[in-house]
Amino acid sequence: MKTYTNRFLLSFFLLFLILGISVPPANAREGGNEGEKFNPKDMIMHHVMDSYEWHLLDYKDANGEEHPVSIPLPVILFTDGSLDVFMSSSFHHGKEQVIKGSNVYRMDEHGHIKEANGKKIIDISITKNVASMFIGALIIIWLFTSLAKAYVKQAGKAPKGTQNFFEMIIVFIRDEVVIPNLGEKHYKKYLPYLLTLFFFIWVNNMLGLIPGGANTSGNIAFTMTLAVITFLVTNISGNKEYWGHIFWTPGVPKLLMIILAPIEFIGIFTKPFALMIRLFANITGGHIIILSLVSFAFIFKSMTVGFAASAGVVVMMFLELFVAALQSYIFTLLTSLFIGMAIAEHEHEHEHAEHH
Predict the structure, then answer these.
(1) Phi, psi dihedrals of residue 355, rounded to the nearest 5°
(2) pTM here?
(3) Sequence-distant (≥ 6) Cβ neighbours of residue 208 within 8 angstroms
(4) Spatial contact of 135 and 207, defined as CB atoms under 8 Å apart
(5) E strands, the chain, where?
(6) What is the model's pLDDT at position 29?
(7) Are 208 and 283 in contact, with CB atoms under 8 Å apart?
(8) Which positions ≥6 away from 354 have C-beta within 8 Å?
(9) Domains of the chain by residue range
(10) What per-residue string of b and e applies to 151-161 under the rule 16 or more CB within 10 Å gives b?
(11) Per-residue pLDDT averaged across 21-39, rounded?
């Protein structure tokens, strides 16, 4: 135990030291131009928001001019019935227009693509968040394909290593989350979806914590899509008792039912809405706090503040590792709860008990 404690403290110290050294000294310049004031809001929004390229770093040439280094991503646009496909590097980081036939595309100050002639654009580009989501999906496919092969290869043997770690998580989700909410009768039907949901959110949360990673789980479109899928699965699976409870709640006076029915109906939409906001707010909030701590070092331009900010970042990173798993668990738990409520079978008594 002492050995593991020493390793943890050594790792903590090294990370603290690296982060502290990486903070520029008091005379450092932040920004492309001499004397340009550091803007924490722009820096934070740049890292939190989606983009058409995967920014890696910036460097300055011999003349002091700053150059960004990015991975270009495919831009896919439908404009007036025509399909235009090109790489985001064609914009040269938003400095140039891209001409495709009669369509002229430019990138505005917010990083959005506009058509110069005001034509309507349907944008299905592979942005940074989409690319990260694809990477997460490939990791999950590779991981569980490998686990499936390991089970076949080691049939009848106790799991070990990675197989044992993930089996522990899968069994926990099945026995402590899915079965208690859906019951033994129905859980097998929904278990594949709920396991996929948990690991998909978890993997994307973890990818977002890697330096330079995308804030996929902190994108409202990502969380909204997951919430909509849960909404559809829940309400398509709903039995007559579920819908009857919403529009004609048993045992409630008719006058009160007129008030209660609209509230229950609105609840159909507020439940997935809460799922969407909870995941989005928690993941984005964590990223903003970490980037805000980093900003203190650039604002005060002090090595002391830099080390203090680095300590805060280290603590927040460990907390975010926990939050990444926790939010995946909560989303899966609430989804299984909503589905369980929709498919629950209740026995109503239609006769009054006799008085003795």
Answers:
(1) -90, 130
(2) 0.81
(3) 132, 214, 215, 216, 217, 218, 283, 287, 324
(4) yes
(5) 53-60, 66-72, 74-79, 82-87, 98-100, 103-107, 113-115, 121-123
(6) 35
(7) yes
(8) none
(9) 61-126, 128-343
(10) eeeeeeeeeee
(11) 45
Neighbour-count burial of 88, counting CB atoms closer than 10 A to its CB (0-12 exposed, 13-18 middle, 19+ buried): buried
Radius of gyration of the chain (CA): 26
Provide the CB-side half-sphere exposure for 302 (13 A, CA).
7
Between CA 279 and CA 324 the distance in angstroms is 10
- Is pLDDT above 50 for 200? yes
Q: How does DSSP assign 75-105, residue by residue?
A: EEEEETTEEEEEEGGGGTTTTS-EEETTEEE
Distance CA 93, CA 117 (A): 21
* Structure tokens, 163: 């197989």
d(CA 41, CA 29): 17
What tokens appear for 218 in the block? 């902190």
8, with CB counted inside 10 A (0-12, 13-18, 19+), is: exposed
Tokens, residue 143: 């991981």
- The model's pLDDT over 153-198, given as tens digits with 9 standing for 90+, comes to 877 777 777 888 898 999 999 999 999 999 998 999 999 999 999 9
- Is there a contact between 295 and 311 (Cβ–Cβ < 8 Å)? no
Q: What is the DSSP letter of 163?
A: H
CA 132, 137, 141: angle at the middle one, nearest 5? 150
Element (H, E) at 284: helix 254-300
- Count of alpha carbons within 13 angstroms of residue 202, beta-carbon side: 18
